[in-house]
Amino acid sequence: MTRILVIDDEEDIVTLVKNTLQLQNYLVDTFTSAKQVDRSKLARYDLILLDIMMPDVDGLSFCRKIRPLVDCPIIFLTAKSQEEDVVTGLSYGADDYICKPFGVQELLARVDAHLRRERREHHAALLLGDVYFDLSSKQVRVSDQVLDLTKSEYEICEHLAKHRGQVFSKDQLYDYLYAYEERGTPAAIAEHIKNIRAKFRTIGLEPIETVWGIGYKWN
């Protein structure tokens, strides 16, 4: 059964999220402080919902520390709408964020979208120039070097590579990643692309091209 971790210092938020997810038959563990979490048990979770603004240990710092330990989706819960918070969170390895106050249906849509993406089965491989996609293990390799991509970064790369030459807007990429009806934020996709490019530049490659005013494509 799917297990979800919720960390938020607001008791009302924790109760709402827990009750909502349990009605969908998810197993839910909740904490009101990141300090309460046993990091040795993080691997058991299929998804983590994490508040940004918390006392003691804030969500951004906690995300940065645990990302090397877990490969499940991390979604930030935040009352802050400033772009810099979104950018920072995504650069630390988060996959998405939900701004408070949020509705029950939005919460479920985001959670379900990320879990569906996790369950997708990939097979075979894809080779474009020097870039090798292992579609089963969700890895990108160049020669013998594996690129350290987050899940969202990998999914963007794979989608663009499978449709090489086709231009996708930020909204189209967001819909592909998260598959929920409400419009996604351009800031999320732009930051993912920025991070992907930085990682490819370390090996001397620039596979993603910006088509100004339209979107992105794989060269």
TrEMBL record:
One BP annotation, GO: regulation of DNA-templated transcription
Domain Response regulatory: start-end pairs: 3-115
Keyword Transcription part of the UniProt annotation: yes
Entries under SMART domains matching the protein: REC, Trans_reg_C
DNA-binding residue intervals: 123-219
Lineage: Bacteria, Bacillati, Bacillota, Bacilli, Lactobacillales
GO molecular function: phosphorelay response regulator activity; transcription cis-regulatory region binding
Protein name: Response regulator SpaR
A GO cellular component entry from the record: protein-DNA complex
PTM-bearing positions, type 4-aspartylphosphate: 51
Annotated source species: Streptococcus troglodytae
Alphabetically ordered keywords of this record: DNA-binding, Phosphoprotein, Transcription, Transcription regulation, Two-component regulatory system
Residues covered by the OmpR/PhoB-type domain: 123-219
Pfam family, one: Trans_reg_C
